[in-house]
Structures are given as structure tokens and as C-alpha cells.
UniProtKB/TrEMBL annotation, chains A, B, C, D:
This is Amidophosphoribosyltransferase. It comes from the Archaea. Mg(2+) binds at residues 285, 347-348. Pathway: Purine metabolism; IMP biosynthesis via de novo pathway; N(1)-(5-phospho-D-ribosyl)glycinamide from 5-phospho-alpha-D-ribose 1-diphosphate: step 1/2. It catalyses: 5-phospho-beta-D-ribosylamine + L-glutamate + diphosphate = 5-phospho-alpha-D-ribose 1-diphosphate + L-glutamine + H2O. One of its GO terms (molecular function) is amidophosphoribosyltransferase activity. [4Fe-4S] cluster binds at residues 238, 384, 435, 438. Pfam families: GATase_7. Its cofactor is [4Fe-4S] cluster; Mg(2+). PANTHER family: AMIDOPHOSPHORIBOSYLTRANSFERASE. Coiled coil: none annotated. HAMAP family: PurF (MF_01931). It comes from Methanochimaera problematica. InterPro entries: GATase_2_dom, Ntn_hydrolases_N, PRTase-like, PRTase_dom, PurF, PurF_N.
């Protein structure tokens, strides 16, 4: 998973990009990068690590210009290779170009082959370089970005929210199903397009709206021009953004993530009530769900586990035994809240089950009489091909075990996952407009070896256009 | 403020010290250090920065030995000077010695002069070096640590929880009033003495008890020996540890800090109820208080501000205006929770008032109809001379303004501080055993130019001794 | 200017590459890189800085494989851009490829345009990426490197010694005129191809011979195969390698550079004798020349200036005045050797004249009665388009001033440059086989706006082949 | 060994100190430090590594003030301990003090004991802290530096050139025998006192004279005051400074080191002539000697070994075999100069013999017919107790083997060391005023277990005083 941002602002963009990436840091902690354009050349800085570690005031001052893009990257295969760190920068016929991509393509190999057959080399192993090539290949023919993005939407399979800077303009587009989020906001002297609304908030900007699935925006010092490139029969918004990935204070496709999670918590109580002493979240991911459960049930919300706020990615463990204790150092049980108590423990999801097992052990070691596990998602049974870093089916505990077996394995007194129906209801999004592939194994587009009900895409490039003049 | 730890453990101490300092990181983020003794020589590493940034596996492996001390330091005057970073290491007559100190002495100048008069030089500007000198000066006469600590307690004025390693033994003592916390726990193959119980939890150890005011412990591979050095008429536990400083999941002098804060929140509701829509904490410091207010009032607990979990100390701001926006990047308002709502905003304390003003601005910008500020401490009116980094009286907003004036200045709809009576009741500690100097301006020991009711100290060194054999 | 190296050795190549780059460090101090291939994937490390600063034992251990290439880069325009640091790594149809290039192309723009016209993007602004593209473009048609290198030699204009690794083979070729050096040697369990023989010496290897102009080598675990791709009517070895650039202990095209310089020094004496007290070099570049002058004249060789061996590139100067003093800190005059003496000061060349002026000032300040400047090259009057980082004609002091004017400007008592005739004689290379463009303004290939006598190139690819079996 | 410097200059001292330490870098590469005083407080920076790596413009700008001291340290036991890095800074009765020391004390243990007996702690394991204590101990009684330095000279045994800053004054003194060098020079707006004249040259300053043995200087904005503290019957200047340690372009006690070495080279020819083809130095230490031999014999001076100018301390070698090859990477043989030749190889000294063996191997591998080793010092047979980092007697090859045995072991055709008589004559210093302990085993002061003829010291403090007004 990744976070992307593009900003055009007459007051300079490096500091705003930095603040925006700070706000999107949860979408990727492995590496980060910023590229700006000063009217003549690109200025670039990207490296492994957190935004706070990579940039400083001197570097930001060197990143000159009123246009720029930024990226944070989640640790996935290949991400440690320096050339794979985004944005991906290149030149083409005197155009200076920088691309940032959030999502995952499922036909990269075929696309790369097509280019290699005509003698093209690849400098990285990213999907992003493939996207850059498709765009450039079309641009050289018609020099129209509408055509280039249309070519992307015809050729790319998978999920892609893309921000691309070509000299002093930023283009942003979202795949026809709108799988990954993307939204646009107004800044003091310009515009920002970014993965989540929290990046707009960080600039004290104003959310305009989500970028529509299949839509392309062109942002320049002149304003924003919107062009609908495709119309899909229905969409495929990722359910996991609501369950876990997005920040609780983001608004995605019109829904505050915090409230979706709180409503899931309410459903968890209604579906599986317990006469417990306290409701405790697994921090931080279960907090919103737990407040919903607490409110609905009237049982006190009390933190049974306190998270160490200073745990970095660099936490060192000398051996396996220590690694198992790491959860204990990260999450400290509050014995006085747990001892002899019946506890409802609320978390967002169970993936492999190992972390849940360790957390329940800690809660029981602290004296809890009963540990009722309540999970804010249905069982995760299938892999994600569209950008969330999920393990294989074999590693997903729910893909092979019944609810009772999982309950026993993680050591809970009882276990309940929210129903898919309640989950969808909590999002307020029609069933058909969501991708719930990781839950049902059915995906909104063709994936080799998997079932699904692919959406129908109509190519309408250029027929609808508008300006975002009123902002 | 600082955090200190000493460990004797047959399995090696560098990794346990590192985990313990991680758990105590909230007590000091400016610098950190570890010193160990391997039977022959000291191994040392200390630097500016966070525990996670200073240490790595290679360094920890070099810190050999089964005895060691550690320290984290809060940014106070002089702390950026490398030689002031603790532990303070030195040698004396073939003894290898390392001292870590939490607290603040009020008679350092006089004590330094005494030593200088006989020709002594000072390598640092810390209180810790003075403590080291007093101990050594007595040791050379009688070679008994009981006498050395007695000399400390007779000569040192102020607060001091001290851990000192002399070759393979660790001595720990707490000033006669017990101003700063200090506790002892059992680890797998040894013992840990530390500022807060969370450090014991981090090692999966077991809390034995607090070190008593005026008590000295000697920890070695043979076990723990306890000696009472002084008896005070009453004590002076710092109230601010409960209000703000200590971690919520620590147990200090028998009280879970989280529960003290929750009870304060209940009192805030009983003293100043509001018919509001939501109760929101200022994260993270107001969370426990806010749950108490919510439970007592029945008004939903809902996060109106979400804290960015990645904000480091290195956050960069190009200018004053940006600095004012920093609070906005750190705390993002959840507009949907605040818009048109009457909000009870709960925080632990108001010091200068500037942060409160900015937070209330943010909440109101997000559309809140009313912002009722509820504060988990009485007005802070006087400076702290005993280790908490408070501003001067001039900078303390409550030292010169009435409650109404403060309310207006910070822009709240209403403002209420918990009463001192309720606060003390929430701690469950007798009035006489607390230091509430920052609230009342009366201190439990003589401070030049300030009022107070100094405790009577009786020197009883060596009369009571015991072993902690049963652990 | 740059230094390149490729090694195939059954004992692993990362340490040998590191030693070789150390030996070639004088050819480029701006950045360095190593790429190795372990039979499956590339391992890469490259960064700005000196070889000693970029690599360490841990990094070298990660650079696995028995095949690899390395590069050091001189500070030229664009070199500070991280993506321009060589080797240039890319993939093509499952081939892992890494290219290192020494030289300069004069038709890069046209070549890039050709590729861009068919939709190709460029990730760097280096000539090296262009070379990679030409090779791959031919490879996909015939899959024969002979054809790919032939295509290079037909299309590339300028100077290029190239080492390219394609999976487990290394190909090396030198432009038809042999402008930049390239040689091959035997290592313990394999072969090394590199810019200068000193890199072979560093591995305790044995020089086999120079790579011939227009020749391509293929080095693998099976041995070395040589193919002559072009035959030129005559060559164009860079005279400046002998004058200044190459290490004195290198043997280029059969000539020990040290001896060429010593013979130049002898000619300087014969052409312009002085009845001086001492002969002093400007260290280190004038040492060999000065020994030749001393031997020929019988006047004692004595160091009048001692070079500070610790001057790094990071030497700091607070202002312009200090910058002018920098020469003084780098070169310390030995007053006792200079005071009241007539000094012959020998240096390799004069470019802008500013450094010579400062050095002569220093020598005169130290009391020298006369300073006779003797220069190991004719006046440098024209720019270099073929890889040496020369200033423009306007900045070259000799392009606009007579010998007497230069002598006066630098403040010398007398000034003599070695004659072109003597210089060429000292190299022992036929006039026609040298490029002396920077001296005469006539180049051995077509350069827009410049005069020259381009060599005739015959393409003979594949007609002569041989194995280097006997090594 | 170490290098020290103190500067008082109205134009600021941090940059001059930095330049001076650069010039003295050869005296110590392990660590470096600068302390300045701005009229109120000390500014400090010290770390492990080279001067170029530790300091940068930002740091130097922070080192404010017109008074300061600096230090470079050679790798000796304990030097890697951060607190041992000099200058040693401390405070005493509102005085800010910083000490830098070059030399070695032989009675440190006794002196430390004396202070410990009265309760003093030690923060470092350096001689420097002991010196600081002695000075302060006397100062508090009389507040006169003459007395404090007299106390040093009465109590300290060994070698010591010391620079000490006390607030805005710098005091410099040299032990009664003048074992280590120390000199004073005039800068633009002040004065510099430093280990070698090259540091004065680096500031474009003017050498005034050497500090006399037993003399103390007081340097302030008012000028320089000189006080003779002791008079010794004769001195003990270290012979090894002339043989190897000092820079060739330094003038010590009136003698240009380069010329001393050149005269040694002449003596080597006169004592042991060879009918050889070339004279080659082992660079860089044998260069001056070799020019002397070449001039005296008329045999051409030609570099048979070229030193890699980029070898840093960080050169990496994977294993023992590689370590043995390191000499080969550092020193590259010029085969064309050596093959079939009879070579006179000139070096400054032989210590363990291992390096000589490897160098001779290299020269013979390069084809030399005969290798006649000529050494610019007599055999080194005894350890140094006075500051030069020599190995023990067991490791000194000449302490147990005859000249013929050494010759055979290092593989030379013939071996000759210069005679002690010629060496002393080359220095031009009377025999009695030199320390030649490492050659004869007889030292100019009492060293337990060693022979010697200690000088008689007379304490004359204060009787001779003068101002250096004329500079």
C-alpha cells in the first residue's frame, strides 16, 4: 500500500508536500519521496525511512517550485531496492515527468513484455514505470493526456490511483472501479490531490470532493479541469480501507472512517452481546469499534492495554523468544483493569492469528477471567491482488479453520466476526460498489484463478468535462 | 524530568535495560544512556536522541555484563551538552562507578563550592556529579554505603531518586520525602529498580514494591538488602506525576495512574456537569480523564481530535505561522464529530495556555457550537523546583489571571479545573504525603523565597534492615 | 572523466572490485558504484563520495557473485543527481544488465531523440543509458553482442570505453580510436578489465594487454574471447592521460606514464635550461617531470612545497579570502629551500592560470629570488569534447594570451611549455595515433564547429576472433 | 602522540584552529577536538575521526570566541573511549578551563592516588585530567599560574607540552627537558602556540620561536608574557620527531626537519655506498632521506613505489591474506623502474620488520635484482615511555637480532642503519640535549627498570620574565 499526493500552489510546494506525507505516513513507512518542478528542472529527494527521518529544512528549501508530487511506500517485495522508491522520475522529449502510484497491477508482466519486444529497457521493477511508459507512448502520438489516460484505463488491469507531474501540470486519475481512494482539496493558493482527506486537513485546506472512478483531473496554476474517461457499471471501493487501512479521521467516498468503524462496533454488540465488565480496544486499530460497542452495550470503555508511543520500526530483539515478547513491550496490560474481569476485546481484523493469540495471552496473564474477542471484519479468507499486503491463503487463519477452531487457537473465551451484511451497511455503500474480495474470494475484476463479477467499463473519454472554478 | 533504571540479572542486562528505557521514554526524550559492568570494566553508550535511535543490536551486544544502569533525560537547560548526558561514569580507587539521577537539587551551588574549596574540578554541570562526589567522599572514610547515602540525605536538598552502580553492585535510594517515584521488581534471574512499574512490565517481571522514602537498596547477585536511612514525619510525593507525567499504566505508591485520572474525570463531571453532545479527550494526555467524565455523565466518549502517530521531535516548520499550524498537523479535528456539537474537551492541565487556545480554535473551526474545557488539575500557579520542567510564574497563565480571564483568553465556552480536594481524594494519598507546590505555592521542604511546611527528617541509618529473600 | 572496471573471478568479485576502484579513485572522486551478479539477481551499491566512504565490509559481503562491474565518477555537470551515478543498471527480457562508461559522446541529443521518437523514456541524463539502449535494441533482433557493439560503433560519436555485464558475462569495448584507455589482466581465478593497469596491480594480477581500439572482449567463467569490430586508419589516444590524468605508475598503450613524464621533464631542460639552485615539483602532478629536469640538468631535486596529505574534498573555507588561502594550507612552502634561491618550478599544465599564480606567490613569499616555471605540456588552448573536464576557451588562459603575457600574469620569472614535438616524442606514440585537440584545436573526429582530421573507420565485425587461452 | 594548538585572535579562532589541526593531523588521526571561549562560556566539539570528518562550517560557526584550544590524538590505548578525547574541559570556581596535552607521564598512577586519597573522582583515564587537577589545586591556594606550572614541573614525570585555556587566557608550557616540541607564532590579530611550525604556516603566520624547555607563556588579548619556570642542566629533545614523527616542512628547535633527513640520507651514502641503478624512497617517510642519498651518490632518484593517495583509515580487508596484500594496494611498484635493477630503498626506520619484509617482497616481485635497504635511524632497540607509540622490546626486531639477521629476515640484499653519531650530527643538536632512549635504552629522566642519565632541574620560577612585545 502507498500514499500519494500532488500539489500546485503559488506559495511553494515542498513544505506542504512534507506536511501531507506526514499525514499519510500510515499508508507506508518503508520509504518516501518528493519531486518538485521549478519551471525548468526537477528537484528530487527520496530515501528509505520515515518522512521525519528523510527530510529536513535544508532539503525542503532545495525542493523548489510551485508544483510537486510525493509518495510514501509500504514495505512490500522489492521496496528496499533504492531505484524502486517513488516518485518515479524521467524525461521524455524535454518533458520532465514524475509519477506516484497507489495500487497494484495484475498484468505487469504482459505489459512489460509488450514494451521489451520493441527494445525498451526498464530501470525499476515497479508498476509505476509501466504506467509512465504507457502514458508517454500515447502522448508522443496525440500529445493529449485524455488519450494517454484512456490508454492506461484500456491497458492496465488492477488498482491504480495515480498522480503524475508533467512539467508544471499535475494530472491525477483513479481506476474505473475507484478501488483506491483519491480526493481533491483547495489549499491557500492552489490545489492538492491526495490519497486521504487528512492530507488536506494537514494544510488547513478544504476538501472539494473525491476524484470519481475513471475520472482524470488536470491541475495547474490556471485551476482544475475534470474529464470523465470511463464509466463503470458499478465500482469496487476497497472494504479494507474502512476496516483497517485508512486513518479514522479520513473521509473516503463521503464516509468518515471513524463512524463506519463505530457503527461496526455497534453491530458487533447487536450480533454478539456479552455481559462483560469492560470493553477494551486493541490499540490503536480497535479504538473506534470499541467505542461503538461500549455505547451500544452501556458497558464501560476502558483501556486494558496501553500502547508504547515510542515503538519505532527499529525495535531490536536479540532472539526468537525476545521477538515473542515484543508484543508485550508494545502493548502493556493494565492489570487493575483486567484482573478477575470479563473483558470484551475489540480489534479490526484477524489475519494470521498469531498476534491475536499473543494479545489474549497477555490479557489472561494479567488476570482476565474471560476474553471475548470481537472483530470488526468478517473472516479474511482470500488474498488481495489490488494493493493490500495480505499473506497467502495458506497463512490466513480463517481460510482453513472454522470460527470455533480459530477461537480455540487464539485462546479466546468467545469469538465473533461482524457479518458481511452489517459491515456493508456500516459503510453505507451499495454492495455492488465495494470490493470485498478478501472476505468472499470474489473480485470486481478478472483475476486469473479467482472468481469474480467483473464490472463493465465504458470508455467515454472527453465527453464530460468541467472546471472546478468555484473553488 | 528523567527516567532511571538499574538491573542485576545473570542473563545479561543490556537488552533488558534497553527495553526498560523504551518503557520509560516518556520521562525524557532528549538523550539516553546505558552503562554496564562486566566484572572488570565499564561499557558505555550514551547520546542525544530517542532510545530507538541511539541503540542497535551491535551496540547492545558490546554492552557486556550482568549489572548495569540506564537513564533517559528530558530537555532541560544544559541537556544538549554531551558531557551532561547520564549515566555519569567515573572511577575512584579502582572502583568503576556509574550514577543515574531523577530529580532536582536546590543547593547544588553550595555543594559544588564546598568541593571546589578543597581543589576539586567538575567535568559536568549536573547534580549527578555532585551526588557522586558526596558518595565517594564518604566512602573513602568508612567504605560503607549506608554512611554515604546518609551523607547524601543530610546534605542534598531537593528531590532525588538515584541508582548507582559500584562495580558489580547496584545501590538505589529515594529522598526522605519520596518526591520522585522508584520501585523494585523481580526479573527472570535477578532484579530491576526503576522509575515506573511499566519498565518492570516490559521485562515481564513482577513488581515487588515501591522503594520507600529514605530507603536504600543494595542489589547484587546475592539478592536485595534493604536499609532504612531516614524516617520523615510525612512525605511529599509529586502530584504532577499523577496529573500528567507518569504513564497511565504505571502504579505509583500503590495507585494505578489511569484510575486516579479516571476518578479525576468523574469529579470533573460532578463538579462541573454540562449537557453536552460528546466528551472528547485532548489526546493522549486527557484520555483517562475523559473516559471518567463520560462514564459519570453518560455522555458518549468520542474522539474529536486524532493524533498523528508519526510526529517526531524533528518536525520542521519554516516560520512562525507554520509553527502555529504545527498543532493542527499533530492533532486533526474530526469535523463530523464536532460540527454543530456541544463538546466537553478534557485535558490534564493548562500551563501557558497557548496550546489550549490553539486546540480550542481548531475545534471551533471544525464547527463545534460550544467547547467546555475541563481540566484534570487545579490551576498551576507556582513553579516546580523539584524536577518538573515548569515555566516561571510569569509564564503560568493561572498565576495572574482568574478562571474567567483564562476561559476568555483560551476561547472556551466554559472552563473548570478539578478542585484540589477532589484531586487529592482521587489519588487516595493523605494530603500531608503529597507535594502540591505547583498548585498551592507551598512546598514540603525549604525553598528560598517560597512558603512551605518542611517535613521533619529523622536519621535512622542502619537501624532497620531486611532481605528481599522471598522473591 | 571516470574509471571503470569489470571482473569475473571464481573467488567472488566485490572485494576485488573495491580494491580496483581504490586504485582508480584518481579518475573520479564524486561518486562510485559496484554492481554484482550472483547467478540470479543483481546486487548494487552506489553513492556520492569516495570509495572509502561508500563501502564497508558489511556492504561488500552483500555484493554477492563472481561477476561484477564498478565505476568512479569525476565531478561533471549533473553528477550530483543520484540516478546518474554509475553503473547504470536495468533489466531487459529477463536479462540483468549493468553498464559502466568512461568517455563522452558528442551526439547524445540526436541519439536520445531517435529513441524518444518511438516512445522511449529516459531515467537519467547520462550517455550510459543511451549506450544501454543501443545495445538492447540490437540484441532483441539478433541476440549477438558482436552486432550490438557494431551498432554502438556505427552510432556513437565521441569517446567510450565501456564495460557491460549481461547476466554472468562481461563485455568490454573501446571506441575505434581508442581515445580512453582500457586494458585486461589476469587475476587469481579469473580476469579483470579496467581503465588503468594500477587496478590490475592492486589485485596482484598480471597485465595481459591493452584492449585494442575497436575491439570487443567477452569475459566469462570460460575465459576471454576477443573480437575485432572495427579497424581505424589511425587512432586518437588522449594526450592528456599522459600529461596529467592517468596515475604515474600506470602503463597505457605500452608506455609507463611516469617515464613519459620524466622524458618530458628532460625535454623541458633541454628546451629551456636555467642556471637555478633547485628543481622543485608542484606536488603531486609535477613530481615525475621534475625528476627528469633534475637528472638532465644535474641541479638538485628538492621539494619546495610540501602537500598536506589529509586535505579532503570537504575542506571548509568561510569566505573568499579564505578560499584563496586554501592553496596555502594544501601546499606549504619550505622556506629554507626557497629563500634567496633561484627555483625551477615544474608542473604538468596550466589551465586557467589562477592556481599557478597563487603557487608562485607562495614561493616568492617564502623568499625565492627567481621562479622559473616549466610546464609539462604545450599551452592548452582548446576545449575537450571527449571526456576531460576542461573549461571553455574563454577560461583557458593560453587561448587568448601569449607566453609572455601568461608569464607576467602568473608572476613567474620565466615560463616555458614543452613543445608539442617533444611531448609526442616522449610518449613514443606516432603523431597520427594521438588526440592533441586541447593543444592544437584539431580533433581526430568530427566535432561541430571545430577543425580536425577524422580517422577512417572500417567495420570488420567478427572477421578476427581469438581466445585469450594462454592466460 | 598528539598535536596541540592554542590561539588568541581578535578575528575569531574556530577557523584558524581548524586549519591548524589540519596541518597537525599527522600527529594524531584517531580523534580531534576544539574548545573555544566567548567571554562567558565554553563551546566544544570533539569526536573520533579525522579533522575533515568531524568539523563542518556550521559547527565551526557555533564555536564562538577569540580564544580557543585544539587537539588531535594518535590511536593509543584508551583513545576510543569518548571521554578521553581532548581537549579536557572542566569548571572550577566559575573558571571555564580546557586543557590539551602532548606527551606521556610516567607517574600517573601515583598522582591519581594522591588525589583519590582526599576523595577526588576521575572522569577520564587521561594524563590530562591529572594535569588539570594539579593546576587547579595550586591555583586555589595562590591564584598564580606561575605557581601552578611550577607545581606541575615538580610533580609531573615524563613528557608534556601543554596548552591550557582559563577563561580568556591561554597558558602554554613545555616540560623542563623540552621533550615534545612547542612553538609560538604571530597571527594576523593575535598569537598561536602549537606543536609544529606547519600550523603557523597554515594561518600564514610568522614563527616567533620555540617555547623554551621549562618555560611558560601567557597569551591574552594584551600580548604574550614569558616566564622561565625551570632551568635544566641539559635537555632531552625527542630524536624520533626528526627521524619520523614531525612533518618534513616543520622547523623544530631551529632545524628544518626536511634538511635533517636529507643530511641523514647523505650520511647513509657515505657510510654505506652502493653501486646501484636507482635510489627509491619508501613513500612518504623516506623521501627526504632518499633525495640526500641520491644527491650525495649521483645515482638517479626514481620512485620505485607509488603511494595510493586515497588510502583512508577505513580500508577494508576481508581476511588475513587480504591484510597482507594491503601494503600492495597502498604501495604500487613501478615495474619498469625496478625490473632487473639494483635498487637502494631508503626508509626512515624499522620497527617490527614486517612492513619492510612486505615492501621488499613487492620490490623483488617487480623484478629488482638487488634491494639495498638504507635506514635513516640506528636500530630501534628500546621502548618509548615519553609519548611515541612504540611496541614492546619483544616486538622490536632490532632488540634481539643482529644487523645480518634482520637483513636476512626482511629479505634485503644488504641493510645499513645510519650511525647514531651521524644522526646526531645531522640534527645539529648537542648529544646531551637529545633523548635517544629508543636507540640506546638510556633515557634523560628516571624510568623504573631502565638506565639513564637524568638531567638536573633547577626551579627558578618567576626570576626571568619578558614580554613578546615586538611582535
Amino acid at each position: 500500500m502507498c500514499g500519494i499526493v500532488g500539489i500546485v500552489d503559488a506559495g511553494g510546494v515542498s513544505f506542504p508536500l512534507y506536511y501531507a506525507l506526514y499525514a499519510l505516513q500510515h499508508r507506508g513507512q518503508e520509504s518516501a519521496g518528493i519531486t518538485t518542478f521549478d519551471g525548468e528542472r526537477l528537484h528530487k529527494c527520496k530515501d528509505q525511512g520515515l518522512v521525519a527521518d528523510i527530510f529536513n529544512a535544508d532539503i525542503l528549501k532545495e525542493l523548489k517550485g510551485d508544483v510537486g508530487v510525493g509518495h510514501v511506500r509500504y514495505p512490500t517485495t522489492g521496496s528496499k531496492i533504492p531505484e524502486n522508491i517513488q516518485p518515479f522520475n524521467f524525461t521524455f522529449q524535454n518533458k520532465k515527468i514524475s509519477v506516484a502510484h497507489n495500487g497494484n497491477l495484475t498484468n505487469t508482466t504482459e505489459l512489460r513484455k509488450k514494451f521489451e519486444d520493441r527494445g525498451q529497457i526498464f530501470c525499476t521493477s515497479t508498476d509505476t514505470e509501466v504506467i509512465g511508459n504507457i502514458i508517454v507512448d500515447e502522448l508522443r502520438k496525440t500529445d493529449k493526456m485524455e488519450d494517454a489516460v484512456l490508454s492506461c484505463m484500456k491497458n492496465l488491469e488492477g488498482s491504480y490511483s495515480v498522480v503524475i507531474m508533467i512539467n508544471d501540470k499535475i494530472y491525477a486519475f483513479r481506476d474505473p472501479l475507484g478501488i483506491r481512494p483519491l480526493c481533491i482539496g483547495k489549499t491557500r493558493e492552489g490545489y492538492i490531490v491526495c490519497s486521504e482527506t487528512v492530507a488536506i486537513d494537514a494544510l488547513n485546506g478544504e476538501l472539494i470532493r473525491d476524484v470519481k472512478p475513471g475520472e482524470m483531473l488536470c491541475i495547474s496554476s490556471e485551476g482544475v479541469k475534470c474529464t470523465q474517461i470511463t464509466e463503470a457499471s458499478s465500482h469496487g471501493h476497497c472494504i479494507f480501507e474502512y476496516i483497517y487501512f485508512a486513518r479514522a479521521d479520513s473521509v473516503i467516498d463521503g464516509r468518515l472512517v471513524y463512524d463506519v468503524r463505530r457503527r461496526i462496533g455497534e453491530s458487533l454488540h447487536q450480533e454478539a452481546p456479552v455481559d462483560a465488565d469492560i470493553i477494551s480496544p486493541v490499540p490503536d486499530s480497535g479504538i473506534a469499534h470499541a467505542t461503538g460497542y461500549s455505547e451500544s452495550s452501556g458497558i464501560p470503555y476502558r483501556e486494558g492495554l496501553i500502547k508504547n508511543r515510542y515503538m519505532g520500526r527499529t525495535f531490536i530483539m536479540p532472539n526468537q523468544e525476545a521477538r515473542e515478547n515484543a508484543v508485550r513491550i508494545k502493548l502493556n496490560p493494565v492489570k487493575q483493569h483486567l484482573n478477575s474481569k470479563s473483558v470484551v476485546l475489540v480489534d479490526d481484523s484477524i489475519v494470521r492469528g498469531t498476534t491475536s493469540r499473543r494479545i489474549i495471552d497477555i490479557v489472561k496473564d494479567a488476570g482476565a477471567r474471560e476474553v471475548h474477542m470481537r472483530i470488526g471484519s468478517p473472516p479474511i479468507k482470500a488474498p488481495c491482488y489490488l494493493g493490500v499486503d495480505m499473506p497467502t491463503r495458506e497463512e490466513l487463519i480463517a481460510s482453513k479453520k472454522t470460527n470455533d477452531e480459530v477461537c480455540e487457537q487464539i485462546g479466546a473465551t468467545s469469538l465473533h466476526h461482524v457479518s458481511l451484511e452489517s459491515l456493508i451497511k456500516a459503510t453505507g455503500i451499495p454492495n455492488d460498489d465495494l470490493c470485498v474480495g478478501c472476505i468472499t474470494g470474489e473480485y470486481p475484476l478478472c483475476i486469473k484463478g479467482e472468481k469474480g463479477c467483473p464490472r463493465h467499463i465504458e470508455y467515454v473519454a472527453g465527453t464530460f468535462q468541467s472546471d472546478l472554478k468555484d473553488f
